[in-house]
Design a protein that fits this description.
- The protein contains no helices and four strands.
- It is mostly beta strands.
- The chain is elongated.
- It starts with 15 loop residues before the first strand and ends in an 8-residue tail after the last strand.
- The relative contact order is 0.28.
Length: 78
């Protein structure tokens, strides 16, 4: 997935991003990145809600709006 940098980065440089998925009634980290592209581990065929949070040397900022997606299931080997 890809995202854009926050418009307001505050006074400290962004050092990374955390990708979270809403699972089991709470947000869980499913990936991380140091760029504006990342890979999240999701279950094919299952709708997943994802969000991204920027982090710096002090900690994490406010999360992005979440998106819902369903990853395509892999074709069966027949």
């Amino acid at each position: 997935m890809k995202w854009t940098e926050p418009q307001d980065q505050g006074c400290l440089e962004i050092t990374g991003y955390v990708i979270e998925a809403y699972q089991n009634d709470h947000w869980e980290t499913v990936g991380s990145s140091t760029t504006t592209e990342g890979v999240a581990t999701v279950t094919p065929g299952v709708e997943t809600e994802l969000r991204v949070t920027a982090s710096n040397s002090i900690g994490q900022g406010a999360p992005s709006y979440s998106i819902k997606l369903t990853a395509a299931a892999l074709p069966s080997a027949s």
